[in-house]
Amino acid sequence: MTGLDPAIAARLKRNADGLVCAVAQQRGTGEVLMVAWMDDEALHLTLTTRRATYFSRSRGELWVKGATSGHTQTVHDVRIDCDGDTILLTVDQTGGACHTGDRTCFDAGPLLSPAAP
């Protein structure tokens, strides 16, 4: 049983697996660090501990970002988008956000570069 506030839970639009998309963004710069998934318990834990907690679809369990790697996310702000299907976390990232060790999960290179002025 989750401790998530019922008013917050009612705003969420979950997928068929009961999950909502979560985007982690660096506080101050707006840099998008990673995308993960949350269930109600992960969101509840994130809100109450200010440590980013996600749901691993591959392992079928909760994981606190950095619990094993030390690459933590301290949460400063949490918002729900207008449709209720995405959570935005504003965090301070310590170490790499990506499981590869890269600063972000989007360091592999652009598919489309910005147009020249």
UniProtKB/TrEMBL annotation:
Main subcellular localisation: cytoplasm
Cofactor note: Binds 1 zinc ion per subunit. Binds 1 Mg(2+) ion per subunit.
EC number: 3.5.4.19
Record's catalysed reaction(s): 1-(5-phospho-beta-D-ribosyl)-ATP + H2O = 1-(5-phospho-beta-D-ribosyl)-5'-AMP + diphosphate + H(+); 1-(5-phospho-beta-D-ribosyl)-5'-AMP + H2O = 1-(5-phospho-beta-D-ribosyl)-5-[(5-phospho-beta-D-ribosylamino)methylideneamino]imidazole-4-carboxamide
Location relative to the cell: Cytoplasm
Known role: Catalyzes the hydrolysis of the adenine ring of phosphoribosyl-AMP.
GO cellular component: cytoplasm
Annotated ranges, domain Phosphoribosyl-AMP cyclohydrolase: 34-106
Binding site for Zn(2+): 82, 98, 105
Top EC category: hydrolase
A GO biological process held by the record: L-histidine biosynthetic process
Highest taxon of the lineage: Bacteria
Functional pathway: Amino-acid biosynthesis; L-histidine biosynthesis; L-histidine from 5-phospho-alpha-D-ribose 1-diphosphate: step 3/9; Amino-acid biosynthesis; L-histidine biosynthesis; L-histidine from 5-phospho-alpha-D-ribose 1-diphosphate: step 2/9
Record has Lyase as a keyword: no
Gene3D superfamilies: Phosphoribosyl-AMP cyclohydrolase
Binding site for Mg(2+): 81, 83, 85
Protein name: Phosphoribosyl-AMP cyclohydrolase
Entry keyword set: Amino-acid biosynthesis, Cytoplasm, Histidine biosynthesis, Hydrolase, Magnesium, Metal-binding, Zinc
Entries under InterPro entries matching the protein: PRA-CH (IPR026660), PRib_AMP_CycHydrolase_dom (IPR002496), PRib_AMP_CycHydrolase_sf (IPR038019)
Family: Belongs to the PRA-CH family.
Assembly, per entry: Homodimer.
Cofactor: Zn(2+); Mg(2+)
UniProt KW Metal-binding keyword: yes
Signal peptide residues on this chain, from the entry's feature table: none
Recorded GO MF terms: magnesium ion binding; phosphoribosyl-AMP cyclohydrolase activity; phosphoribosyl-ATP diphosphatase activity; zinc ion binding
